[in-house]
Amino acid sequence: MLRWRGLADLPGNWGRCVVTIGVFDGVHRGHQELIRRTVEVARERGLPSVVLTFDPHPSEVLRPGSHPAQLTSLRRKAELVEALGVDVFAVLPFTLELSRVTAHEFVHEILVDRLHVAVVLVGENFTFGAKAAGDINLLRTLGKRFGYVAYGAELQGASMRGGRAGGEDLAAEITYSSTYVRSCIDAGDVNAAAAALGRPHRIEGIVVRGDGRGHELGFPTANLSTPRFAAVPADGVYSCWFTCSTRPGELLPAAVSVGSNPTFSGRERSVEAFVIDVDEDFYGQYVSLDFVARLRDMERFTSVAELVEQIDNDVKQTREILGVS
User: Fold this and answer.
1) How far is the C-alpha of 301 from the C-alpha of 174, rounded, in Å?
2) Residue 311 belongs to what H/E stretch?
């Protein structure tokens, strides 16, 4: 897969292509379906498929300080897109200047003049251009003028079973969206997030020095310094898969604490991973955590012995959940 930053990387002999457009944060199951369809249409027509996305998130440029929690880093997003068979991952730097480009100008100057689109596929609720004035109807209208076709894909979702009322099961229709996934993660519901993503939610970061308390307790932890906008799950203890650069392709089981460590009157929120059955100092490494299950809330214990007993139980539960003997 080719990766472009801006459109200056377009080769001089670039022909026509099939494009899908969006932020695609999380690359959730709705995004995946849209991208797969883009790849299918491109192959049917013998053309390259292009995912056109933006960085940074438009909201941070338009309303500084409003950046939503980030589900996937740009690097991770590219990896997920590549796995779906896309030919080109093109990132447009989102700037104030780009935000002022009208919908008509975006189509004419970027999609037609630069990318030479033959087909555009977007979600049916897609908007674009200055003040989000463009939509799928405008894309179709301009397509008749500029010689491309545009398709709006139905939003993807699922029925979620809830409790009971009046003797009847309760069910709700949810639509897969980045906002929905963020709400699940913010609530600590990593199972619901995984159902919408089609995989466990992942956070990444550099391992930094902590206060060393985990080592003193017999459970040394890797303390992650996560990116500024990372979507970190709600405070609690989780079962995760841990990966690192020194063990490429290897999934290591880990019991992970997210929170401020109330037993020791902690104030700063941290992400600490106890990697099971591995005696290694991960300091300075870039690692990732895939959140499989939530074990419990963050608790304040009356004694260190009580805390150690609970951590030991967290590790046992993690072994069972992840199928590690």
Assistant:
1) 38
2) helix 304-322
Report whether 289 contacts 254 (CB < 8 A).
Answer: yes
Which ranges in 108-148 belong to alpha helices (H)? 136-146
Q: How many CB atoms are closer than 10 A to CB 155?
A: 14
Alpha carbons 324 and 316: distance in angstroms, whole number: 9
Chunked mean pLDDT (size 10), the chain, 325 residues: 90 94 97 97 98 93 88 96 98 95 97 97 95 96 97 83 47 86 97 97 92 68 92 97 90 93 59 92 94 93 84 95 92
Domain boundaries, the chain: 2-153, 200-322
Could you tell me if 233 and 289 are in contact, meaning their C-beta atoms sit under 8 angstroms apart? no
For 22, the enclosing helix (H) or strand (E) is none
Which pTM value belongs to this model? 0.90
Give SS3 for 201: strand
According to CATH, the superfamily of the domain at 200-322 is Riboflavin kinase-like (2.40.30.30)
On the question of a cis peptide bond just before residue 56, with omega within 30 degrees of 0, the verdict is yes
The arrangement of secondary structure in 2-153, i.e. its CATH architecture, is 3-Layer(aba) Sandwich (3.40)
> What is the distance between the alpha carbons of residues 95 and 213, in angstroms, rounded to a whole number?
44
Count of Cβ atoms closer than 10 Å to residue 320 Cβ: 12
The CA distances from residue 207 to 73, 258, 288, in Å, are 17, 14, 10
